[in-house]
Amino acid sequence: MPTTNDIVLRPRFKIELNENNETLLKAFEDTKKTHPNFIVSRIDDHVFIKFPKENQHFWSPQLHLEINESENKTSTLHGLFGPNPTVWTMFMFLHFLVACLFIGFGIWAYTNWSLGNNYAIQIFITLFMVVIWFALYFGGRIGKATGTNQMYELHEFMNQILKENKIT
Fold it and tell me: Membrane-crossing residues (predicted)?
């Protein structure tokens, strides 16, 4: 499951399958009762695979599959690995907050500079926002590295379901 870019925080993949999408979706839906090590939920053409609460940690990934019908009764499976949606939302909120503070303190520093007032504190806080931005980025990378083994487990489980149903 190599990625083409080391900066990818949410790896994606795409698989063309020779089966219609309802058969694939049913195969994943049927695993709810037979595989207790994973939680599988389906909403329309989307399948979410994650770990039970007792096997999760803060950085545990989940696998989101979108199975679309293609021509001639074939399907396209789009996969996306990502953190728990709550963790992802928190990270995006923090990035937005840091960006707003960076812009706000940057404008305040420029205003004080143009008025001839002291602006050292505003410059310091603006530069500190850059440091926080990098800390958030590297925190996300560390989180991804922490969840890598579970990401491979999710991918292997998906492949196992496809093999069990003779879909690959």
Answer: 87-107, 119-138
Are 59 and 147 a contacting pair, CB within 8 Å? Answer: yes
Provide the 10 A C-beta neighbour count for residue 138: 10
Cα–Cα nearest to 11, from 78, 82, 90: 82
- Residue 37 has φ and ψ, to the nearest 5°, of -80, -5
Q: How far apart (Å, rounded) are the C-alpha atoms in residues 56 and 139? A: 18
Give the per-residue pLDDT at 7: 46
Give me the mean pLDDT over the 162-168 stretch.
75
The helices-and-strands tally (H runs, E runs) of the chain is 5, 5
Q: Which residue has 């143009």 as its token pair? A: 114
pLDDT tens column, 45-74: 899 999 999 988 888 899 999 988 887 778
Strands (E), the chain: 12-17, 39-43, 46-50, 61-69, 75-83
User: How far is the C-alpha of 88 from the C-alpha of 13, rounded, in Å?
Assistant: 19
Q: How far apart are CA 90 and CA 110, in angstroms?
A: 30
| CA 83 to the chain's CA centroid | 5
